[in-house]
Amino acid sequence: MPMDMLSLTSSQFPSGTSLTNLEHVFQMVRAGNFSKYDYGIQGNKKQYDQEKPPRYNLSKLTVPTALYYSSNVWAANIAVT
């Protein structure tokens, strides 16, 4: 993860998290989808038996779910909603 993104992230989020978790978030932002962690081609083949990480199947959610966002949040892509 680029250090400038780490600085931006740590200044925006009030609580701590792992670098792996932050990398996963940035992977999804860059890819434009909600998928599992990307270990690279070889790692993905070992972990998922395919070259790219699989997307999460949100249709399997059975509990009521709400997504809140703001136009002022850098991570929210209003065009997708």
Total beta strand runs: 0
Q: N-to-C terminal Cα separation, in Å?
A: 27 Å
Order of helices and strands: HHH
Estimate what percentage of residues fall within beta strands: under 5%
Principal-axes geometry comes out as globular
Query: Could you give a short account of the major beta sheet?
Result: none
Q: On the 0-100 scale, what is the average pLDDT? A: 81
Overall radius of gyration: 15 Å
Determine the number of helices (DSSP H or I, runs of at least 4 residues). 3
Could you estimate the helical fraction of the residues in percent? 25-40%
**Unreliable stretches, pLDDT < 50, 5 or more residues?**
none
Structural class: mainly alpha
Question: How would you name the oligomeric state of the polypeptide chains in this document?
Answer: single chain
InterPro entries: AB_hydrolase_fold
SSE blueprint:
Blueprint lengths: L2 H10 L6 H13 L8 H9 L33
InterPro entries: AB_hydrolase_fold
Question: In words, what does this structure look like?
Answer:
The mean pLDDT is 81. Helices cover 40% and strands 0% of the residues. It has 81 residues and is an all-alpha fold. The longest helix has 13 residues, at 19-31.
